[in-house]
Amino acid sequence: MMIRLIIFMSFSLCLLGSEKSAPKPWPAEVKEITYKSSIDKTQQPTLIYTAESKEKRPLLVGLHTWSSKYTSAGGDLLYAKWCIENDWHFVHPHFRGPNWTPKAMGSDYVVADIESIVDYMKKNYNVDEDRIYLIGGSGGGYASLLMAGRKPEIWAGVSAWVPISDIRAWWEQKDKQKKRDSKYARNIEDAVGGRPDIVPKAAEECIKRSAVTYLENAKGVNLDINHGILDGRKGSVPFTHSLYAFNKVATLKDRLSEDEIKTYYKNMKLPQTLKPALKDELYGESKTLFRRVSNNARVTIFQGGHEIIQSAALNWLANQRKSKPAVWKLSEIKTLDVEKGKKEVSR
Question: Best label site of 108, 206, 220, 243, fewest CB within 10 Å?
Answer without folding.
Answer: 108
